[in-house]
Amino acid sequence: MSFPLPPRGTALALLLAGLLAAPCAFAFPPERRRQYEDRSPNEYLVVPAVASLPGIGVFVGVISSVSNIADSKIDAAAAVAESIDNTDISLQALALREVPLWRPWLSLEYQYAHIRLGNFQTFLPGRDSPNFTIPITAEFDVQVVRPVLRLWERRVSLFYTLAFFDGFSFDENGNEYPVRRHSASTDLRLDFTDDVVNPRRGVRFHVGSTLNAPRHTFLGRDRLGDANDPTESDVRVESYEVSGYLPVAEHAVLAADLIRFRAIGEEGSDRVIAGGSPPLRGYPAGRWSDRYGIFLGLEGRYTFPMFREIDVLLAHGLLEGIEAAAFYEVGQVSPREDNSLYRDMHHSYGMGARLVFEAIVLRLDLAFSDEGPQTHLTIDQPF
């Protein structure tokens, strides 16, 4: 298995990592504050909420997460949501992580989701995507299986992801046809931080690439209903990410994240090839997508220490603190890998609050851009 060489511009990521790591170079990599394997059993959160999901709709539902079930080291998360506006969307999802195959090095992750989009509004891809949406109706299942090899106190992780989509697509005339297909990717992550869940010091690197996927697995068999299906191509998507964490006071951290992605293949095609979408929190999900993209996020985090045992109906575990955050982000996409990628950047800013447990972070962010506000209620730090 091989990984591609970084594209031009990745030197910015290395420079960013070096600047953030410089003050703690004498202790690089920094010692772990705790080992993830030693997390307490049965720590959980159940969060009933009414929330606006960016670019999707207004929902009522439940987000839940449990860590180290019955001291088995297995983590789980689930979500159930129904739209309460005119979008007519529903979601049921389940994820299992840390299923041990060869402890402590090899584990398995599994995800399943059933999604119905009764009146889903999506943006057109491309750098010059207009500020209007087009409706999509769909119902599909997605399964993901991901074996993970972890070494050296989880500082080195190698992922292979196999996904199976069972739904339908559209032909050039807008007619629906059923589709079942596999996709695959590989990721290498280097984590030189002091904590897996909520780092305060160090750097992380992530390199990923899509792969050719098998046509028949235990998840199902491919069914391609249209020989001209635009999703069937030889396009390979590569992504590069570096995150840095610098303590600036006893309870304050400056976090930074730089992402670069590109799609390789079909360079002569007239259609928009999407390599990804910058995760700008002030815009709807997927608002900007094209062949090449870049993202830079800066976030200041201040933690009010608590270290209080919580044992109520909807939560159990050690609440380490309540965290306040302020962030600023820029990003852009382009069909060409030239200076246009760095012109007319999109800007996003906002604030957030997090409940930091031993193995779970509950995050609520309010973000703004020139297209209005967006709210994010989810689990895990943004980076």
Descriptors:
single chain; 383 residues; mainly beta; Porin; 13-stranded antiparallel barrel; two-stranded antiparallel sheet; 18 strands; globular; disordered N terminus
What does this structure look like?
- By secondary structure, the chain is mostly beta strands.
- It has a single domain (10-379), classed as Porin, CATH 2.40.160.
- The chain contains one helix and 18 strands.
- A 13-stranded antiparallel beta barrel has the order 1-2-3-4-5-6-7-8-9-12-13-14-15. The protein has a two-stranded antiparallel ribbon with strand order 10-11.
- The two termini are 26 Å apart.
- Residues 1-15 have low confidence and may be disordered.
